[in-house]
Amino acid sequence: MDLGSFYSEYGLWIVFGTVLVQQFGLPVPAFPLLILAGAQTLVEPAHGLWALVLSVVASSLGNYAWFIAGRRYGHRVLKAVCNVSLSPDSCVRQAENAFERYGAGSLVLGRFVPGLGIVAPPLAGGFGVGAPTFLLYNGVGSALWALAGIALGWAFHTEVEWLLDALAMLGNRALTGLAVAVVLYAAYRWWRRRQFRRALCAARIDVDELREMIERGKAPLILDARSHVLRQLDARSIPGSIAVDPDDLDRALAEIDRDREVVVYCACPNEVTAARIAVQLQKRGIARVRPLTGGIDAWEAAQQVRRGDG
């Protein structure tokens, strides 16, 4: 059975299943399947309508689960969400900025911005967006996204048919090549992230050292590098810390003594936001600056242990 015949027989179920698992963070190609659905619509007009309906239902089911998790667990679910992304170091920041600017509208935008779609639903839940509002915006975004794919497939049905014929001629070699390309891309992103983290590992400070400095009365300047949105969602902070905007460091520089030791913390995966700010401050002449290993989570965990010991 060639790819075209296989899709004709099982395509709608494949579209539903692929869109559903994509909402849980798996990097599966859902949009190309909608393009195939659009091409199939030329032969079966009802096919595109069903593909649209099933895409919206699958998206609503998957994203509603993240929405409920965000409402129940707040900021704690964000790290879990981003750890299943190929770009965990940037997706939280991107979603926070979008949510701060567009509110529930980020649920629509998230369907078209890689990495944002999976983070926006738990953010909406954490900030108390109502379920009807969430389902409305998520449904609109999902419908527009699915329509875009179906429209592309309908408009370029000739090219889609040519591609299917070419893949059918290549057989398993095409699938193997695609799988190799995906694996190489994921490996490259992992290697870049690992190189960045290794470059900064030696320049970090741990919670115990920071607490000891504070207790000795030699506390460094502590900068909270979390976004305004995340600080609203997560009220925890290190006593005496100063909130800084990662996108406006020049304002923070005016208040920093260049001879003072500086510690930066965040709540993002791998403390990458704090590490990046540390690098930028060093380039601007702040020599003694280190990110806090584990960020706010590590600080709070250590505080809970101390309270339990007491």
Describe what you observe in this structure.
With 310 residues, the protein is mainly alpha-helical. Helices cover 69% and strands 4% of the residues. The protein contains 15 helices and four strands. The chain has helices spanning 3-23, 30-41, 45-73, 76-82, 88-102, 106-109, 116-126, 131-155, 157-170, 172-201, 207-215, 228-233, 249-253, 272-283, 295-309; strands spanning 221-224, 242-243, 262-265, 289-291. Strands 2-1-3-4 form a four-stranded parallel β-sheet, with helices on one face. Helix 1 (3-23) packs across helix 2 (30-41) and helix 5 (88-102) crosses helix 7 (116-126). The longest helix has 30 residues, at 172-201. The protein is elongated, with a radius of gyration of 23 Å. It starts with a helix and ends with a helix.
Brief sketch in words of this structure:
With 310 residues, the chain is mainly alpha-helical. Helix content is 69%, strand content 4%.
Q: Quickly give the structural class.
A: mainly alpha
Give the helix proportion (percent range).
Answer: 55-70%
Number of distinct beta strands? 4
Helix count equals: 15
DSSP strand content:
under 5%
List segments where confidence is low: pLDDT < 50 over at least 5 consecutive residues.
none
Radius of gyration: 23 Å
Q: Describe the global form.
A: elongated
Q: Summarize the main sheet.
A: 4 strands, parallel
Entry keywords:
single chain, 310 residues, mainly alpha, 4-stranded parallel beta sheet, 4 strands, 69% helix, 4% strand
List strands and helices in order, with pairings.
Layout lengths: L2 H21 L6 H12 L3 H29 L2 H7 L5 H15 L3 H4 L6 H11 L4 H25 L1 H14 L1 H30 L5 H9 L5 E4 L3 H6 L8 E2 L5 H5 L8 E4 L6 H12 L5 E3 L3 H15 L1
